[in-house]
Amino acid sequence: MTVGSQVKGCFASIKNIEASLETLANKVQDVEAKNAYNEVQQIISQIKDDLKKQVIYLAREEPQYK
Amino acid sequence: MPDWIIIILKSITLIIILFTFTKLLGSKQISHMNIFDYITGIVLGGIVAVHTIDPNLNLLYGIIAMFIWFIVPFAVEWGSLKSKAFRNFTEGKSTVFIQDGKIMEDNLKKEGFTTDDLLEKLRDKDIFLTSDVEFALLEPNGAISVLPKRENRPLTAKDLGIKLAPTKEPQTVIMDGKVMHESLANLNLNLKWLETELAKLNVSIENVFMGQADNDGALYVDLYDDKIAVPEPTEKPLLLATMKKCQADLELFALSTENQTAKDMYEQNSKKLQVAIDKIETYLT
């Protein structure tokens, strides 16, 4: 596996986490838990943005594996 | 009219009256009744019993007697709701039996409790040594409430400083294969959600004996057929595991890359993710 595909896999997992958190935040009744889920979701979305940039950068570095 | 018809008619009338009176007197649990409630119950029952089986007695007298025995306790109850002093008089006050691990012998004698009675009641509460007790009180209804000394109290999450996610009561959303719409609405969920969850578990609603949903909208079901294994909800443990895996991956990328900006980015994000995991772990376990 190339570095590019590894990072892509991690990026996909992060997206999965973000979506799961969003469903949980929508389903949960308790306000405190809802806030915690939302807060963590924001952190995850920052990580997602960074990784997205990295994925694009790596795709440019390794065009042969695209 | 033959006697037996009279007895049937009287019984039905008295049952109806007794039922209404006891409903109106309120539904205190038997263990929470004070002496007066107890006596009232017996007398009302007695009047009904006597009048039911004796056809020669005048039913009207019975009803009058029952009415008196109903209205006085009713007034007493009303009065004790309104005034604390009156309540102390009618319901009695609690008596201190043990304070700072020392038994109050005079109070014991006053309430007619022997040492054995006290020890028995304490053993009921899993206490075998009176010096383990900080404070014990005889309630007006005859029960003993015990506050053990600090070191003898059961350990709680608060003592250990563990933060736990709050939980609300679970709702029973399926009973005997039927959907309970009100419970679903209490959780802000709908039939569509239930159908999806059941489809995920690969069971049809008719086969579900009982289905309960918790605060986070995870569904736990019990089927009529006990041979079929039902998977437990895995959404939350899976989410936590994925988060941990991603965090480890980011750390690995940070170690393996030679590009300094990428390294910094990976390190920073792996730290962020760790913070996120710490924040949410209590809610996901």
From TrEMBL, chain A:
It holds the Pfam family DUF1657. It comes from Oceanobacillus bengalensis. The lineage of its organism: Bacteria, Bacillati, Bacillota, Bacilli, Bacillales. InterPro entries: DUF1657. This is DUF1657 domain-containing protein. It comes from the Bacteria.
TrEMBL record, chain B:
One of its GO terms (cellular component) is plasma membrane. The chain crosses the membrane at residues 6-26, 35-53, 59-78. Coiled coil: none annotated. It is a multi-pass membrane protein. Residues 7-76 form the YetF-like N-terminal transmembrane domain. It is found in: Cell membrane. Signal peptide: none annotated. It comes from the Bacteria. Keywords: Cell membrane, Membrane, Transmembrane, Transmembrane helix. The keyword Membrane applies. InterPro entries: DUF1657, DUF421, UPF0702_alpha/beta_dom_sf, YetF_N. Pfam families: DUF1657, DUF421, YetF_N. Residues 82-213 form the YetF C-terminal domain. Belongs to the UPF0702 family. This is DUF421 domain-containing protein. It comes from Oceanobacillus bengalensis.
